[in-house]
Amino acid sequence: GSGKTTIINAVAGLLRPDEAEITLDGEALHHLPPHKRRVGYVFQDGRLFPHLTVAENLTYGARVRRLPLTEFDRIVELLGIGALLQRRPAALSGGEKSRVAIGRALLSGPRILLMDEPFAALDEARKVEILPYVEALRDSFNLPILYVSHALPEVARLATTIAVIDAGRLVAIGLAAEVLSDPATAPMLGLRDAGAILTARIEAQEADGLTRLASPAGPLWLPRVAGGVGQSVRVRISAQDVILAVERPHGLSALNVLPATVLALIEGEGPGAMVQLDLGGQRLLARVTRRSALALGLAPGQPVFAIVKSVSVARGDIGDLTFSSGG
After folding, report:
1. Which of 11, 48, 166, 280 could connect to 89 by a Cys-Cys bridge, CB 3.0–4.6 Å?
2. Which distant-in-sequence residues (6+ apart) come within 8 Å of 291 by Cβ?
3. What is the Cα–Cα distance from 17 to 215, expressed in whole angstroms?
4. Ramachandran quadrant class, 133 (left: phi over 0; alpha: psi -120 to 50; beta: rest)
5. What is the DSSP string of 75-90?
6. Residue spans of alpha helices (H) in the chain
């Protein structure tokens, strides 16, 4: 209800706002009818044509616009849908339908791709399955993507820049790492889902099933992370999964004890407080009670240790980082 879909529909030309300026690469779009804006739109429910095969769905937009299908094989391979081409939508899973819908939008020759909560109807397992395909899309095409979602794990994994909309107004915008680690935006994003992203590099695949990552704050051990040694990843760590200590703890089952410095502390309306931490130049959030903050004497500039359980980081919270995080 904040206006996310309204904005994306205005960009697509599906509604005409009373007052707006919409530009893409310096060209005004708000005066153009939808079919001349060259936008690809992926809806929540896919909206595939049930009477057409996957191949016919994929090429529909290109045929209408009389565009060459030079990217067909590349997109089919990228999305892993080669085995589905002769099927009809009724024979596809939810994740497969989503991938076909993305392929159809890409093959329509868009200048921008609009995605309106494209995975809202999928369960968590299907989301984890399909997100790598969207990451590959993001990294393989020189195509701006306007991605609408209220699911923070998706946003943290995919976004390079985040705009936070509240009651129809833009309340925050910036690089993903900066917005997600800002304690002032946490209440708007949802305290239960609040969390920051760390950039790390795969350093070793351990024999016991853990992956050792190198981060600016030191080594980070997580359950097996897909990828080769040297590959960069970004890891979303939920604020409620971070425990703070003023001295390095001993005798803990938690493997990840990261030295940090308190940057800011913002108390909420209830019993909680959000603490922003600096870990070697990267930002992390910790959600603690005000009582704990007082007992530890937390204040800006104070050195602390951030403790993160390895198993608290889900597979869906780890994303590939082959692109520039500031892009």
Report:
1. 48
2. 271
3. 46
4. alpha
5. HHHHHT-GGGTT--GG
6. 4-12, 54-65, 72-79, 94-106, 124-140, 152-158, 176-180, 186-189, 290-296
* Upper half-sphere CA count for residue 214 (Cβ side, 13 Å): 8
DSSP 3-state helix, strand, coil percentages of the chain (rounded to 5)? 30, 30, 40
Cross-strand bridge partners of residue 289:
272
Task: Give the C-alpha distances (Å, rounded to integers) separating 260 from 101, 212, 317.
Answer: 44, 19, 21
Token pair of 3, please? 């206006």
- Write down the pTM of the prediction: 0.81
pLDDT of residue 325: 39
Per the CB < 8 A criterion, the answer to whether 122 and 94 are in contact is yes
Instruction: Please give the C-alpha separations between residue 313 and each of 176, 235, 262, in angstroms, as whole numbers.
Output: 18, 8, 22
| Token duo for residue 305 | 């240790």
Q: Chunked in runs of 10, what are the mean pLDDT values of the chain (327 residues)?
A: 86 88 90 89 84 92 78 89 93 89 89 89 80 84 88 87 90 92 86 86 93 92 90 90 94 91 88 92 93 94 94 76 44
Distance (Å) of CA 266 to CA 7, 58, 181, 244: 31, 49, 12, 15
pLDDT on residue 31: 87
